Amino acid sequence: MTATTVGPKALNITSKIKPAEQALRNPFIRLDAEDNVVVARIDVPAGVAAKSGNFVTQQPVPAGHKVATRDIKRGERILKYNTTIGFASEDVPAGTWMHSHNISFGDLVKDYRHGEAYVATKLVPREQRLQFMGIVRADGRVATRNYIGVFALSHRGATVARRIAEHFDEDALAEYPRIDGVAPFTHEQGAGMELSGEPMQMLRRTIGGYISNANTAAALIVSAVGEDNELNAFLEDQHLAEGARIRTLNIGAAGGTRSAIARGIEIVRDLLPDANRAEREPVSVEHIVVGLQCGGSDGFSGLSANPALGVAMELLIEQGGTAILSETSEIYGVEHTLTARACTAEVGRKLVARIDWWLEYNKGRDTQINGQVSPGNNAGGLANVLEKSLGGAKKGGNAPLMEVYEYAERVTQHGLVFMDTPGYDPVSATGQIAGGANMVCFTTGRGSCFGSVPAPTMKLASNTPMFARMEADMDINCGPVIDGDATVAEMGRAIFEQIVRHASGEPTKSEALGVGASEFVPWPLGVTV
User: Fold this and answer.
1) Smallest Cα–Cα separation from 496: which of 324, 308, 283, 286?
2) How sure is the predictor about 64, in pLDDT bands with cuts at 50, 70 and 90?
3) Are residues 203 and 261 in contact, defined by beta-carbon separation less than 8 angstroms?
4) How many CB atoms lie within 10 A of CB 3?
5) How many helices (H) and strands (E) does the chain have?
6) Can you give the pLDDT at residue 290?
7) CB neighbours (10 Å) of residue 81?
8) Is the sign of the CA dihedral 227, 233, 238, 241 positive or negative?
9) Mean of the pLDDT values across residues 309-330?
10) Which of 127, 253, 392, 437 is least enclosed, having the fewest CB within 10 Å?
11) Could you tell me if 451 and 429 are in contact, meaning their C-beta atoms sit under 8 angstroms apart?
12) Closest CA to 93 of 66, 61, 60, 58
């Protein structure tokens, strides 16, 4: 069997029923036979009897929220997907709306079972792997986009970097059709901080990772006087050198802001012809590296978009590709499901070490890992971080965990890997792209608007009503899973095929809207001085 290129058409999955007709269906979703709660498919008023089960709703239940299927005693575990998401804080009768007001966080005893459930992925033979239209760099790396980046080493160079990039609008790039854009990468660090140590190491690793990302064809690095992130130290630390692909610009040496902007524009003009020589060609999908994100989650995210994305990642991994799961604080409580299927005990222990770091770092702080989720997540039906983690971890599917990386560390292992990042999406995605992600998949239930460059973001809506409201921002609707019009497996296949189309150059919604140039947010770890 010869390798094939995924065609331009994906599975046609749409919701076939109108919202008014949904009330005729069972308004609740049971996720596991052992669960003592079900999830409301739609807004359910009080007094509604379940079509399957022996309860009547005691209170109105918002869509995405949970209902007790039987009487639950105080202190009893609340089970969703047959996994503990908390404990009843009071006695509740069947039909009770279950949320943060009557589900307590509690302490969990976890059996990490490092590597005991590991099952190696059965890879598709190389000659049979699917292909996409990628850009092969001289060193063999494969890109999905072709950007020139203008990088500020510290916030002092931000204005100059932005002005240089802004010059190269659509008209200025009209003669260079193979270049996707000239993007500024500015941030608020690099000066007034420790000269060495973990914060500086992370900042340099992040900027260096973006410069080295396959989607960055060339880079201009802008520096200023008095930066703690000094240019030569940065280049040496990141094993980078000025040459045909990497150029540098010092604002003071150039004669000040106005002169530096003019000089920077000249330098980028010099970089354009070589970057424009890039051509797309058929390559194996094993070169697709996807950063997995979820933001503005609701009670449906863990039922539709996240598990469907997990199926898509399993398909990608079988083809030799790579999926980067992150947001460490948002897998807390279910990390044992990952450590159990780690390829080695050492990899499992690496993940636990990062969880322990977060618990220590957040000790005594009013943060998510200590229980309460964001107001938006809570309104969407998530009672606490345990429930959010349960859904969030599903983005990686059931693939074995092959490696654990520090923030912005270069990802070299194929398969499902984990990168330690905060739960804040722009910071997390920034770390993944610095690690080598050439695509980002972002699930949302509440409608988070996000984009990224140089790696494009594909956004997945967890429910049909939100997708209908925000179709200009959302790339794919996973709501048919909730509506009963598609299975998770069918939706996963559709997501996989759409990922391949976007990797081949089809613009995502965020790209069409021009979202992404302001979403470069390195992790601001540490205290400024």
Assistant:
1) 308
2) confident
3) no
4) 16
5) 16, 21
6) 98
7) 18
8) positive
9) 96
10) 127
11) no
12) 58
pLDDT at 10 over 50: no
The closest of 153, 146, 166 to 249, measured between CA atoms, is 153
pLDDT of residue 195: 87
Q: Scanning the structure block, which residue is given the tokens 């702080």? A: 365
pLDDT class of 21 with cuts at 50, 70, 90: low
Cα dihedral across residues 110, 112, 118, 123: positive or negative: positive
Asked whether 322 and 329 are in contact (CB, 8 A), the reply is no
Q: How far apart are CA 291 and CA 284, in angstroms?
A: 18
436 by DSSP, 3-state: which?
coil
The strand order across the sheet containing 83-88 reads 77-80, 83-88, 103-104
C-alpha span between 377 and 425 (Å, rounded): 14
83: Cα separation from own chain's centroid: 23
Question: Which of 278-292, 334-348, 355-369 has the least mean pLDDT?
Answer: 355-369
| Cα gap 528→240, rounded to integer Å | 26
pLDDT digits (tens, 9 = 90+) for 364-396: 887 777 666 678 777 777 666 677 777 788 999
Interatomic CA distance for residues 211 and 172, integer angstroms: 22
Region of 111 (left: φ > 0; alpha: ψ -120 to 50; beta: rest) is: beta
- Which residues share a beta bridge with 150? 184, 220
Reply yes or no on whether the pLDDT at 1 is more than 50. Answer: no
Q: Which two tokens stand for residue 519?
A: 């979403």
Give the mean model confidence (pLDDT) for residues 11-17.
57
Give this prediction's pTM: 0.90
Name which of 146, 121, 118 is nearest 414 in CA terms.
121
Nearest to 488 by CA among 522, 515, 460: 460
Q: Which residues are CB-contacts of 20 (< 8 A; sequence separation ≥ 6)? A: none
For residues 294 and 305, what is the distance between their CA atoms, to the nearest angstrom? 9
**DSSP letter string over 328-387?**
GGGTTTSHHHHHTTBSSHHHHHHHHHHHHHHHHHTTTS--GGGS---HHHHHTT--SHHH
What's the alpha-carbon Rg for the chain, to the nearest Å?
A: 24
The mean pLDDT value for 332-336 works out to 87
Contact call for residues 80 and 40 (beta carbons, < 8 A): no
Handedness of CA 438, 304, 494, 3 (dihedral sign): positive
The one-character DSSP state at 56 is: B
* C-alpha closest to that of 73 among 53, 88, 59, 58: 88
How crowded is residue 67: how many other Cβ atoms within 10 Å of its Cβ?
Answer: 26
Q: pLDDT for 452-487, tens place per residue?
A: 999 999 999 999 999 999 999 999 999 999 988 999
Q: What is the three-class DSSP state of 71?
A: coil
The DSSP letter of residue 88 is E
DSSP run (H or E) holding 492: helix 488-503
Cβ proximity of 95 and 466 under 8 Å: no
- Residue 86 tokens read as 């908390």
CA distance 447 to 474: 8
Average pLDDT over residues 257-262: 98
